[in-house]
Amino acid sequence: MANLKELSRVIPERLSSGHRLCAGCGASIAARQILMGTENPVVVGCSTGCLEVATTIYPYTAWEVPFIHNAFENVAATISGVETAYRALKKQGKIKKDIKFVAFGGDGGTYDIGIQSLSGALERGHNFVYVCYDNEAYMNTGIQRSGATPYGASTTTAPAGKASFGKSQFRKDLTAIVAAHNIPYVAQASISNWNDLVTKSQKAFSVNGPAFLNVLAPCPRGWRFPSEKVVEVSKLAVETGFWPLYEIEDGKWKLSYKPKQIRPLADWLYLQGRFKHLKKEENKKAVEELQANVDKRWKELLIKCEEAGK
Amino acid sequence: MNKLIALTGDQAAAEAMRQIEPDVVAAYPITPQTEIAMNFSQFVADGRVKTEIIPVESEHSAMSACVGAAAAGARAMTATSANGLALMWEIVYIAASTRLPIVMPTVNRALSAPINIHCDHSDTMGARDSGWLQVYCENAQEVYESIIAAVKIAEHKDIQLPIMVCQDGFITSHAVEGLEIFDDKKVKEFIGEYKSRFSLLDIERPITVGPLDLQDYYFEHKRQQSEAMKNALTIIPGVLGEFNKEFKRNYGLFEAYRLDDAEIALVVMSSTAGTAKVVVDNLRAEGIKAGLLRPRFFRPFPKEEIAKQLFGLKAVSILDRSESFSTQGGPLFIDIRSALYELDNKPLMNNHIFGLGGRDIGIEEIESVFRDLIKAVKDNKLETKVNYLGVR
Question: Could you give the CA distance from residue B316 to residue B262 in angstroms, rounded to a whole number?
């Protein structure tokens, strides 16, 4: 693959600078890398969330490509309509170009309120790429817990306190839920591993039918770490096995990256303010449980990817 | 040549959709709308239309997909009833505010709870403030013709608003009537090819649809939307004029039945007006000067025309097939009473709520309303109150 600089020469800028996302926001990095995955014209759909709110403050827009936002929970259904209109008009000879379609949703708009709309669109087999930029909570409304928030994280609706160590449930495995729809391409990626992410985006855009990318896109404000550490924090999520990189092509699971040695989860946890209460003696058990869960899930993934024992 | 065939109201709606041949239809089944989606799906399956159908997993997604398709420059349609419309709710507002000319045949049905599948107008009356145009039809023929006219109204460059074409669940949707069907070609010529001004698929001219709109612009956009609704009031009669000329019909914003010299009248929408016309004829045969006003368009609300029609009458009763729970009467009554407020010579007026959840209304009940009006005129007294007609 070309390097990032070369790629940015081939593909014109699609999300321009001047948007109002926070410094160090993982979502804009994810969006820009994913939009490097196709040279075709592309139409972007976006659910309500940070990415949409901060890029389209009327009368300005940061989008150099056609863009639609409808509501919080329905970007998959909305892009279904756009993609179907494209097929209808193409069949009638009114459109000649080959256009690609991508929908961006945060974890709130995807894991939680938008899962029905996503599931319906996947089952119907629309030709589009769905990207969940996963920052593990509802961020622009003030950092509330979502179905993607990790066990033990403190959020404003699952706060740590005298009687609580933060969120008391493990996160939902959305990538596996999507994979159960048996769509052509599903992958998990991280903004820290850009080469892997852009390659997966290229694959996602090239398949015929729905493709899904779950991209870890850390939020410095919500996770409570300095903006400049966004790539480091993303990288540690991968190196600790918390956020494994893998893909499922036509039902076949494949590990994209295997750390030489899995690092302890604590290396990732304590870079972030949302886990700082876990350092307290009385919360040590929660850390152990989280570590055990990550280990278990990593082992299960190795089996699925036929990597166990290798 | 027009063709005469026997169809239900739902089949009539599907037949209009077949002739319109929209680019995209996204629909989810719900009684009593289901037959529209079923019949249209068969047209697609038989290759009789080039429409792409999206068999969505919910009404919320049906309206969401229509918004996407319409924003992409396609002619988009869906159909619904009751709880389906309620589930679409959020996106119903977005469709209107985004100024997308989506046409939605809507089969009126009571809203839960308790669950009830039969006709009343609580579903679409709930959506009266959503910014959609609404037309209420008396019979299947009018359903068929109004859907065709609706396309041209919604897409008019100075309107650009979505429209619900309402018919009464089961009463109209499932009863078979003899129907006159126009030539396919004439329908296509009348509606013309759709050319949207903006499209997401116009790659050379990228647009951003549905942006964040804060304190500095939101208010102005709402005001523009309100202006579009006002425009609709003046533009719709012109479009209906074209329709009437082309298909030899006589549609307006409302229908006045034997109202010219009437002294007492009822105001009622949809299929009940058909029954009320029989009562008017019976009373006329007795020498009683009875009449009927049937608003077709409830949004936009033809305030001035309605006031003009009711001016000079001695007593009027407004019949509502839904509750507003304002304790001031149903939505039609509230709007009409407000429209007449500025008249010096207001008729005596009351309100009857009837037919909720499909409760039947007969000639005798409608006649009893007229008899009360006759007495009111004699006594020159009518309590302006909300009555419940046909309730135990």
Answer: 10
pLDDT bracket for residue A308 (50, 70, 90): confident
What's the pLDDT score for residue B389? 97
Q: Is A82 on the interface with B (CB under 8 A)?
A: yes
Q: Is it the case that residue B19 has pLDDT exceeding 70?
A: yes
User: How would residue B360 be classed by pLDDT, with cut points 50, 70 and 90?
Assistant: very high
Residue B286 tokens read as 């007795």
Q: What is the dihedral of CA B129, B130, B131, B137, to 10 degrees?
A: -80
Nearest CA among A297, A228, A15, A265 for reference residue A153: A265
Measured distance CA(B344)–CA(A233) in Å, rounded: 75
ipTM over 0.85: yes
**Got the DSSP string for B76-142?**
EE--B-HHHHHHHHHHHHHHHHTT---EEEEEE-PPSSS---S--SHHHHHTTTSS-EEEE-SSHHH
Name the β-bridge partners of B52: B24
Q: How far is A34 from chain B (nearest CA, A)?
A: 19
Q: What is the pTM of this model?
A: 0.97
What single-letter DSSP state applies at residue A300?
A: H
Question: What's the pLDDT score for residue A1?
Answer: 64
Instruction: Tell me which chain B residues have a C-beta less than 8 angstroms from the C-beta of A87.
Output: 52
Chain A residue with CA closest to B23: the answer is A88
Asked if the C-beta of A85 comes within 8 angstroms of chain B's C-beta atoms, the answer is: yes
Instruction: Count the Cβ atoms, other than its own, within 10 Å of residue A258.
Output: 15
Between chains, do A116 and B56 touch, taking CB under 8 Å as contact?
Answer: no
Chain A residues whose beta carbon lies within 8 Å of the beta carbon of residue B208: 56, 61, 63, 66-68
- Cα B264 from chain centroid? 25
Q: In this structure, are residues A108 and A172 in contact, taking their beta carbons and an 8 Å threshold?
A: no
Picking from A155, A137, A154, the residue whose alpha carbon sits closest to that of residue A146 is A137
* Cis preceding-peptide flag for B114 (omega within 30 of 0): yes
Instruction: Give the DSSP H/E element, type plus range, for residue B146.
Output: helix B140-155
What is the residue type of B169? G
In order, the DSSP letters of A146-211 are -TTPPTT---SSS-EETTEES--SPPP-HHHHHHTT--SEEEEEETT-HHHHHHHHHHHHHSSS-E
Distance CA B160, CA B165 (A): 16
Task: Find chain A residues with C-beta within 8 A of B200's C-beta.
Answer: 43, 66-68, 82
Q: List chain B residues with CB under 8 Å of A100.
A: none
Count the alpha carbons within 13 Å of B95 in the hemisphere toward its beta carbon. Answer: 36
B64 chain-A contacts, CB cut-off 8 A: 70-71, 74, 77-78, 80-81, 117
Token reading at A40: 């075709």
A243, B27, B354, B356 from B112: Cα distances, Å: 45, 21, 17, 11
Is the Cβ pair B64, A67 closer than 8 Å? no
Tokens linked to A123: 């089952």
Q: How confident is the model at residue B76 (pLDDT cuts 50, 70, 90)?
A: very high
Shortest CB distance from B54 goes to which of A52, A64, A124? A124
- Rounded to a whole number of angstroms, the distance from the CA of B60 to the nearest CA of chain A is 8
- Which residues of B fall below an 8 Å CB-CB distance to A? 23-24, 26, 50-52, 54-58, 60-61, 64-74, 76, 90-91, 94, 200-203, 206-214, 217
